[in-house]
Write a structure and sequence with these properties.
Elements lengths: L2 E2 L8 E11 L4 E11 L13 E4 L4 E7 L2 E2 L5 E3 L3 E4 L5 E10 L9 E5 L2 E5 L19 E10 L5 E4 L2 E7 L4 E12 L6 E4 L2 E8 L5 E8 L8 H18 L7 E7 L6 E2 L4 E5 L12 H16 L8 E2 L5 H20 L1 H20 L11 E2 L8 H18 L1 H14 L4 E2 L1 H12 L7 H5 L5 E9 L4 E9 L14 E8 L5 E2 L12 E4 L3 E7 L5 E4 L8 E4 L3 H10 L3 H20 L4 H15 L5 H8 L4 H5 L7 H18 L1 H7 L10 H15 L4 H10 L5 H11 L6 H14 L3 H13 L8 H5 L9 H14 L1 H4 L2 H17 L1 H6 L14 H15 L3 H12 L8
Parallel strand pairs: 2-12, 18-19, 19-21, 22-24, 25-32
Antiparallel strand pairs: 1-23, 2-3, 3-9, 4-8, 5-6, 5-9, 7-8, 10-11, 11-16, 12-15, 13-16, 14-15, 17-18, 20-21, 25-26, 26-30, 27-28, 27-29, 27-31
Helix pairs in contact: 1-2, 2-3, 3-4, 3-5, 4-5, 4-10, 5-6, 6-7, 9-10, 9-11, 10-11, 10-12, 10-14, 11-14, 12-16, 15-16, 16-18, 17-18, 19-20, 20-22, 24-26, 26-27
Bound molecules: zinc ion (ZN).
The site of zinc ion has 4 residues, from helix 3.
């Protein structure tokens, strides 16, 4: 079934109160009492429907009563999707009893077992897998929950809001009653039952209240919560200081789950997290993990306002809460970890995940028009591109107006389900500027290409700088319009000095111009041909096609003070060098090496920034530079590129590689050491191998993982295999570290399809644990490109997806992307991958995977709307 945004109708019923009674036992029973009334607006016009339809996904409903009168059989019917009641009054209390089997729930939606505990995941439609309900985000109700279970097996019983009562019962049972004072949509519902350790602290809020902060983790993991706790306090303080937003309950709880489909979930007052985004100590987690934990903790906390207090009218508006909240967590990370490096990492991620999505068969607008399975729309487009749109709005109106606009939006929409127009309208009102042209960014799929051309006439001393924009067609959207683009730029003369921009009607400040149509021209008189640096700070999420010469790129890389543009210029040189190597032309490689040598010769001021500037680009972004890829030639050129840089920079790399400090604050030095080690390992020297070997069992996980990655480049496959064996020997009891081991095993440079069965049959592999499945399948497709891009690789991967789809369609669908790009592969890979996709389409059963496979197979045909 296809859901369309234009089909939106307000709900026919209001649910004022929800009282849930959940008895966890051999047969888990959920009794729901819903205080319902017909919505005022319903029933006008056409003859009114007297019945009631509630979402009920694969539920076993035992009984139904209205105003405590049990309904006879025949008065209600149940199918796989809904509970229908033929006739209901205008106002009534509906009571349903439903039987659940959390142990058998492998989809990890609704109420399910994760290790020794039971927990929930209700976004987007998990709640109707627990009890019949109007499972849509615009139905907001106040919830009370009573949980009852065996006190020894489930000593911890949690739900949203505040605990108002708990006590012991006969037969070793106990109960807890929770009340959430804020009306909420059911996707924010959560409950947890388990034997968990609690780590508690308090936060003194700006209004003077002490908020209890409570983390619940598996016993034995109590000492791995400190970083997450500190991050939570930082996030709470930041939202108070930046936006004046103060936490609104007495307790904020986070539960770490072993088995979780996503990163984390912002359920009101009771966040449930993938354990990978909670637990960290320097010996078990990398510096990147520490950063990711801070960002995810902040993200879910910030949702308490942007998402929970103001929610989405329908799931088409998902980016209203996600794009905005990603932007908020990005700004938080920039303030805490440094804006320059954070911005580079954000853009790297956007280009690796979102740009390819926007150019592929599943391209969709940030606000989609239609979907079959909403779970398929938790994408980089909704999240990261959505955040870039919010960032552009922030850039155009400034930080102060943005703060006022956000507060205005939250005040106007408090306790409501809003739309993207509501948000953009509030920002417009606060800024006194009409931002509605930016709504086109939400409607149009595809990454705009911004072309920069220059003309300088020496005789007339006239410089003309011209920008044009173009967006290629995407499935279902053949025609594209020009989008408003904030372009931050500066001009430099031959000595590297900044020259003011010429006056322009759409200029905002000294370095910012908003492009409002297909083209924008700047003209000025100048004695020399000035060199523009454009998209400072990546001011718009576009692909820049500039007419720079290799010499000009070297000059920008050398002189530009904007760290993003400097990094981006090196990326362009990498891309040109790689393309040249595929054609046997080394001129761009020489220019790149000259630029890198210059950076390597500078004193290291910010080691993390230097590490980023010197890093090889990721293969995902590089891959996306080509309309069609020949995998073998691509990978050969990539390996050549890495070796050439290693040889040319051998001197400084050999100085940085041994410097491997272990203090928390020295992440930059570690990153630089790992980059250096990674290059040097490509040269195969014995001393480098010894250095890496020593680090494999380091007490610092960043160094250990860096060493394992470096050894992966060794020409002899036995070297990384032996290093990984030693690593596993040390960490075999630690689930999160073993996820890393599985990822390195499956993603190594020597891995072939024939290596996968041994990993899947490994005693510690578990199809029911998404982290582990992602570690093996995801790493194979993303990292082991030489093994994946073979007929056997595609087949082995598709076999894994088919098997996973039967258990967990949501995670299976998310892992599909690497199989959907066959239109851009050279032969014979294109035909081989397409055949595997056709075969897989015949095997899978879920709407999740079928929707994406159909999009790939139908790309280019007229009915290709995803
Ligand atoms: Zn979110």
């Amino acid at each position: 079934m296809i859901h369309r945004r234009t089909d939106y109708r307000p709900p026919a019923f209001v649910i004022d109160q929800v009282a849930l009674d959940v008895q966890i036992a051999e047969q888990t029973l959920v009794t729901a009492r819903l205080s319902m009334r017909r919505a005022a607006a319903s029933g006008t016009g056409r003859a009114r429907d007297t019945g009631l339809r509630l979402d009920a996904r694969a539920l076993q409903v035992v009984s139904v009563a209205i105003d405590d009168q049990p309904l006879p059989a025949g008065a209600w019917t149940l199918d796989d999707h809904a509970l229908h009641i033929a006739e209901v009054p205008d106002q009534f209390t509906l009571t349903t009893v439903t039987r659940l089997q959390p142990e058998a729930n492998t989809a990890l939606e609704g109420f399910y077992q994760s290790g020794p505990m039971y927990c929930t995941q209700c976004e987007a439609h998990g709640f109707s897998r627990i009890t019949p309900y109007l499972d849509r985000p615009d139905v907001l109700s106040r919830f009370t929950v009573r949980l009852q279970a065996d006190a020894a097996r489930f000593p911890v019983l949690l739900a949203n809001g505040n605990c108002i009562e708990r006590g012991a019962l006969a037969g070793g049972q106990h109960y807890a009653r929770w009340e959430d004072p804020y009306a909420k949509p059911c996707y924010l519902f959560a409950m947890v039952a388990g034997d968990l350790a609690k780590v508690a602290d308090t936060f003194r809020a700006a209004d003077g209240r002490d908020i209890a902060l409570e983390f619940f983790v598996d016993h034995g993991n109590e000492n791995r919560v400190a970083h997450a706790m500190a991050s939570l306090k930082d996030a709470m303080r930041w939202d108070e200081q930046r936006f004046g937003l103060v936490y609104d309950l007495d307790v904020y709880m986070i539960v770490a789950a072993r088995a979780f489909n996503m990163g984390a979930m912002e359920n009101k007052g009771l966040n449930i997290f993938n354990a990978a985004y909670v637990l960290a100590t320097p010996d078990t987690a990398t510096d990147e993990s520490f950063e990711a934990i801070s960002a995810v903790i902040a993200h879910e906390y910030f949702h308490n306002y942007t998402g929970n207090r103001v929610t989405c009218r329908d799931w088409f508006q998902l980016s209203l809460k996600e794009g905005l909240t990603v932007f908020r967590d990005q700004r938080f990370s920039e303030d805490h970890l440094g804006g320059a490096v954070q911005r580079i990492e954000q853009v790297r991620m956007l280009r690796a995940a979102q740009f390819p999505e926007d150019a592929g068969p599943t391209a969709h607008p940030v606000r989609p028009d239609a979907y079959q399975e909403v779970n398929n729309f938790y994408t980089a487009t909704i999240y990261e591109k959505g955040a870039e749109i919010v960032r552009m709005l922030h850039t155009v109106i400034g930080a102060e107006a943005f703060r006022d606009g956000l507060r205005r939006y939250l005040a106007e929409q408090n306790g409501k389900a809003a739309t993207i127009e509501d948000f953009v309208g509030a920002l417009s009102a606060a800024a006194g500027t009409d931002l509605s042209p930016f709504l086109a960014w939400y409607a149009q799929a595809g990454t705009p290409q911004l072309r920069l051309t220059r003309a300088w006439d020496a005789a007339s001393r006239r410089l003309i700088i011209r920008f044009t924009q173009h967006t290629a067609p995407t499935p279902g959207q053949p025609e594209k319009q020009a989008l408003p683009l904030p372009i931050r730029l500066r001009l430099r003369n031959g000595r590297g000095q900044v020259v003011p921009l010429p006056a322009h009607a759409d200029a905002l400040g000294d370095e910012l111009i908003v492009m409002r149509g297909d083209a924008l021209t700047l003209e000025m008189d100048t004695d020399e041909p000035l060199l523009p640096s454009v998209l400072l700070g990546f001011s718009a999420p576009v692909k820049l096609l500039a007419d720079y010469t290799l010499d000009e790129l070297q000059r920008i890389a050398a002189y530009e003070s904007d760290p993003f543009v400097r990094w981006d210029t090196l990326q362009s040189l990498h891309a040109r060098a790689h393309a040249g190597l595929m054609e046997g032309d080394r001129s761009a490689l020489d220019a790149l090496i000259a630029a890198l040598q210059r950076i390597a010769a500078e004193p290291v001021d910010d080691a993390m920034l230097t590490a980023h500037l010197l890093s090889l680009p990721g293969t995902a972004w590089l891959w996306d530079q080509y309309p069609e890829v020949h995998p073998q030639r691509f990978l050969d050129a990539y390996a050549q590129l890495g070796r050439a840089i290693a040889e040319a920079l051998c001197g400084p790399l050999s100085v940085w590689a041994p410097k491997a400090p272990t203090l928390r604050g020295q992440a930059g030095e570690r990153a630089l050491s790992n980059v250096a080690l990674g290059y040097l390992a490509r040269l195969g020297s014995a001393s480098v191998q010894r250095m890496a070997d020593d680090r494999v069992v380091s007490d610092n996980m960043t160094l250990a993982i860096g060493a394992l990655r470096a050894l992966g480049h060794h020409t002899d496959a036995a070297v990384p295999a032996e290093a990984l064996r030693r690593f596993a020997q040390r960490w075999h009891d630690d689930a999160l570290v073993m996820d890393r081991w599985f990822a390195l095993r499956a993603g190594g440079a020597h891995v072939q399809a024939a290596d996968l069965p041994a990993l899947i049959d490994h005693p510690q592999f578990d199809w029911r644990n998404p982290n582990r499945v992602r570690a093996v399948l995801g790493s194979f497709a993303r990292e082991a490109l030489q093994g994946f891009h073979t007929e056997a690789g595609y087949r082995a991967y598709a076999d894994g997806i088919a098997r996973l789809d039967a258990l967990n369609p949501q995670t299976a669908a998310r892992l599909l992307k690497p199989l959907l790009g066959f239109k851009r592969l050279a032969e014979p890979w294109a035909s081989q991958q397409k055949q595997v996709v056709i075969r897989l389409r015949a095997q899978v059963q879920s709407t999740d995977t079928r929707e994406l496979l159909d999009a790939a197979l139908n790309e280019g045909s007229s009915s290709a709307t995803p």
